[in-house]
């Protein structure tokens, strides 16, 4: 006769659930890695192009430190401002779900960190994987305050391509020889003309072989024949799209903006400011030395730009770097000419998402934003060094964005009135032949936003204009990635163009180059509550007002609401 122990059925049934919950928690604890970093903003002297000057840096490094993490990790970056300028940092390509407090753009999601102050940013990574980057989001500080941000696949999973033997971040930058970069936007505003044009582009901080004084310091990659290298290329340049190539080497494009693409081979890239492109380099050429090179793709005809070429050296192991380099320099790659819009288009139209089937098919909200250059009249206190004796300006739907004196996010969260208006136009206020011959016209100034319902499905058509000059505008979204479902030249046609959309495997991106004199249609689900900036990533256009802001309302659950502001949030 045995003793019968009665365990209620309900407990028996829930035991496996409790057990698996327990295992799940253990795994979560084991996997939820938190990385802590300290970024100290300080001035440091650097010598480039035979001239020494002070620049703003993080921890004295230029380019700044590379952040490394795994998919889904959390980073806490404590930023200590030991410089004489206000600063904020932006984690470019990180979605910051529900947490715009750590997104960075000054006066949009936070007040600046003033000299002597500090602020800890929290970055909860979610779907990002690949190369993203970080940069300052105050005035022009990002010219030197920037760095790579690498997100590896989760421990236990792998790249959707053969594991490369080595990886090398390639940060493309821009250098002004004699100018204090922090004075450039202020000076341009004073004159109404163009901001000072740079003297060099850089690869990982070095202008390279073709500029005076930089031969010995040219950035060099040494490769072993037969191996594969993952180049994580970031365009951190302020004002120009770039063509990039490596002599005699075909590159395999595998990802863009921290999102995987279907692989394709190419002899050159066109990369806009704000974009990051991951490519595989196959060291499969004759042993020797080859140049990596980049120069401008400048689509705005007539606009002044830096016409120089930056280079780095790719050399096969065993080839020694000696004086011979001077007599027998490596060959330059064939780069498309500065104004080769067709080459730019041929490259970008090859982007396709690695995976299909995630594109929103129905659209709740249609938006059409005309992005434009403009000219303003001068007044006594505002001289006019722009074209036609006027001042440069730029706009989205004829509004030149003006920074408020406290950030929009705080005003929204604390319901402070009078900081922004919710009547940003959802279509251009005046219809015209956007890409036709237009006389330049003025704009209105404003701090206006579009409010979107949580989880609504949005299609935004970005329409370039030919007002004053048409240009390729790299439009970057904060808080979101989007599917680039269509793109073309001329004016967007609401009847015909959607018939040619790619709704199967369009690329998912966070910065898209809207073609010169053309349009781009993007779709996304407004599932990230908060205040989010979208803007051109050409800095002079930002300075003139080419910004817009979305507010996405809170969703119905705790996880779809804005998190609380952190206690150390800077005040204005
Ligand atoms: C980041 O994620 C962790 C774990 O899910 C969560 O506890 C925390 O609130 C998140 N922080 C922010 C700022 O979103
Ligand atoms: C990945 O996981 C394995 C086994 O759990 C562990 O030994 C290893 O240290 C982890 N690697 C990293 C980089 O976290
Ligand atoms: C590299 O390509 C150029 C033509 O673009 C060719 O003249 C040269 O011989 C090639 N060099 C090597 C080492 O293959
Ligand atoms: C790209 O080139 C590499 C090396 O030359 C080759 O192995 C690969 O198959 C090519 N990939 C595509 C998608 O054409
Ligand atoms: C590019 O510039 C060259 C030289 O200025 C000019 O001859 C050519 O027509 C231009 N190409 C395009 C596509 O505008
Ligand atoms: C700008 O100046 C032009 C003449 O140069 C004048 O016709 C126009 O009314 C002015 N616009 C404004 C808004 O003052
Ligand atoms: C717009 O202007 C362009 C260039 O002048 C012209 O080719 C086109 O036909 C115009 N489109 C319309 C709809 O008027
Ligand atoms: C833009 O706004 C300015 C100032 O109100 C106005 O003069 C101009 O006609 C507007 N242009 C368009 C295309 O809406
Ligand atoms: C948002 O929409 C998706 C797809 O319709 C749905 O699965 C999800 O539950 C919604 N999120 C919330 C928080 O309502
Ligand atoms: C949501 O958050 C509130 C306040 O933090 C809490 O009282 C409530 O229980 C939460 N609701 C759920 C469903 O977790
Ligand atoms: C720095 O930020 C503070 C707070 O918003 C502001 O009052 C001050 O004008 C800013 N300084 C500069 C030089 O922009
Ligand atoms: Cu632009």
| Strand residue content | 35-45%
Name of the CATH first level of the largest domain = Mainly Beta
Number of domains: 3
Bound molecules: 2-acetamido-2-deoxy-beta-D-glucopyranose, copper (II) ion
Structural class: mainly beta
Overall pLDDT metric: 92
CATH architecture of the largest domain: Sandwich
- Name the shape in a single word: globular
Low-confidence stretches: 1-30
* Topology-level CATH name of the largest domain: Immunoglobulin-like
Annotation, overall tally of beta strands = 32
Radius of gyration: 25 Å
CATH superfamily of the largest domain: Cupredoxins -  blue copper proteins
What is the percent of helical residues?
under 10%
Q: With helices defined by DSSP (H or I, 4 residues minimum), what is the helix count?
A: 6
Q: Main sheet, how many strands, which sense, barrel?
A: 6 strands, mixed
Strand line-up of the largest beta sheet = 10-9-12-17-14-15
Name the descriptors:
Cupredoxin; 10% helix; repeat; mainly beta; 572 residues; six-stranded mixed β-sheet; Immunoglobulin-like; membrane; disordered N terminus; 32 strands; glycoprotein; 3 domains; secreted
Short recap of the structure:
This protein is mainly beta and 572 residues long. The chain is built from six helices and 32 strands. The termini are far apart.
Protein described:
This protein has 572 residues and is mostly beta strands. The protein folds into 3 domains: 32-160, Cupredoxins -  blue copper proteins (Immunoglobulin-like), CATH 2.60.40.420; 161-353, Immunoglobulin-like (Sandwich), CATH 2.60.40; 365-560, Cupredoxins -  blue copper proteins (Immunoglobulin-like). The protein has helices at 9-31, 184-191, 324-327, 341-348, 408-413, 539-544; strands spanning 34-48, 51-58, 67-70, 74-81, 89-92, 118-124, 130-136, 146-152, 166-175, 200-203, 220-223, 228-235, 241-246, 251-256, 259-266, 269-271, 276-282, 289-297, 310-316, 365-376, 391-396, 399-401, 444-446, 449-452, 457-464, 473-477, 482-489, 508-509, 511-514, 518-525, 530-536, 547-552. The strands form 7 sheets. Strands 10-9-12-17-14-15 form a 6-stranded mixed β-sheet, with no helix packed on it. A 6-stranded mixed β-sheet has the order 21-20-25-30-27-28. A 5-stranded mixed β-sheet has the order 11-19-18-13-16. The longest helix is centred in the N-terminal third of the chain and has 23 residues, at 9-31. It starts with 8 loop residues before the first helix and ends in a 20-residue tail after the last strand. Mean pLDDT is 92; it is low at 1-30. Residues 398, 429-430, 432, 441-444 line the site of one 2-acetamido-2-deoxy-beta-D-glucopyranose. Residues 377, 442 line the site of one 2-acetamido-2-deoxy-beta-D-glucopyranose.
């Amino acid at each position: 006769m045995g003793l019968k122990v009665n365990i209620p059925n309900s407990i028996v049934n829930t035991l496996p659930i409790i057990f698996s919950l327990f295992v799940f928690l253990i795994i979560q604890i084991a996997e939820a890695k938190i990385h802590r970093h300290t970024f100290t903003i300080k001035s440091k002297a650097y010598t480039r192009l035979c001239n020494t000057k002070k620049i703003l840096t993080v921890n004295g490094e230029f380019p700044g430190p590379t952040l490394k993490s795994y998919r889904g990790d959390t980073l806490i970056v404590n930023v200590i401002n030991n410089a004489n300028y206000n600063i904020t940092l932006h984690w470019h390509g990180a979605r910051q779900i529900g947490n715009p407090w750590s997104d960075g753009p000054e006066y949009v999601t936070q007040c600046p960190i003033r000299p002597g102050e500090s602020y800890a940013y929290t970055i909860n990574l979610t779907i990002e994987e690949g190369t993203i980057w970080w940069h300052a989001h105050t005035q022009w500080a990002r010219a030197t305050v920037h760095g790579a941000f690498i997100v590896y696949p989760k421990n236990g999973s792998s790249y959707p391509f053969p594991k490369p033997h080595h990886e090398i971040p390639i940060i493309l930058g821009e250098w002004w020889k004699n100018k204090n970069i922090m004075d450039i936007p202020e000076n341009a505003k004073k004159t109404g003309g163009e901001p000072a044009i740079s003297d060099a582009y850089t690869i990982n901080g070095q202008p390279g072989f073709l500029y005076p004084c930089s031969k010995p310091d040219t950035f060099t990659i040494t490769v072993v024949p037969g191996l594969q290298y993952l180049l994580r290329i970031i365009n951190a340049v302020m004002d120009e799209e770039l063509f990039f190539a490596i002599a005699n080497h075909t590159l395999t494009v595998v990802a863009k903006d921290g999102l995987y693409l279907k692989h394709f081979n190419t002899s050159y890239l066109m990369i806009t400011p704000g974009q990051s492109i991951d490519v595989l380099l196959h060291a499969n050429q004759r042993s020797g030395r080859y140049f990596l090179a980049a120069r401008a793709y400048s689509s705005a005809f007539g606009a002044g730009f830096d016409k120089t070429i930056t280079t780095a050296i790719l050399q096969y192991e065993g080839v020694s770097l000696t004086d011979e380099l001077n007599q027998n320099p490596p060959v330059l790659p064939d780069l498309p000419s500065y104004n080769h819009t067709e080459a730019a288009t041929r490259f970008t139209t090859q982007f396709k998402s690695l995976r299909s089937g995630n594109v929103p098919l129905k659209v709740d909200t249609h938006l059409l934003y005309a992005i434009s250059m403009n000219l303003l009249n001068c007044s006594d206190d505002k001289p006019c060094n722009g074209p036609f004796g006027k001042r440069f300006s730029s706009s989205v739907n004829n509004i030149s964005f003006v920074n408020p004196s406290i950030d929009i996010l705080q005003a929204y969260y604390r319901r402070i009135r009078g900081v922004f208006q919710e009547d940003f136009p959802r279509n251009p206020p005046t219809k015209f032949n956007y890409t036709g011959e237009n006389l330049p016209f003025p704009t209105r100034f404003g701090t206006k936003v579009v409010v979107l319902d949580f989880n609504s499905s949005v299609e935004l058509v970005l329409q370039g204009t030919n007002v004053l000059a048409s240009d390729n505008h790299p439009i970057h979204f904060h808080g979101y990635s989007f599917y680039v479902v269509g793109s073309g030249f001329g004016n967007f046609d609401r009847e015909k163009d959607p018939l040619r959309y790619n709704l199967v495997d369009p690329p998912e991106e966070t910065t898209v180059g809207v073609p010169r004199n053309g349009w781009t249609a993007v779709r996304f689900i407004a599932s990230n509550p908060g205040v989010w900036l979208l803007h051109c990533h050409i800095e002079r256009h930002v300075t003139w007002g080419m910004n817009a802001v979305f507010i996405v309302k809170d969703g119905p659950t705790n996880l779809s609401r804005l998190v609380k502001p952190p206690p150390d949030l800077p005040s204005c």
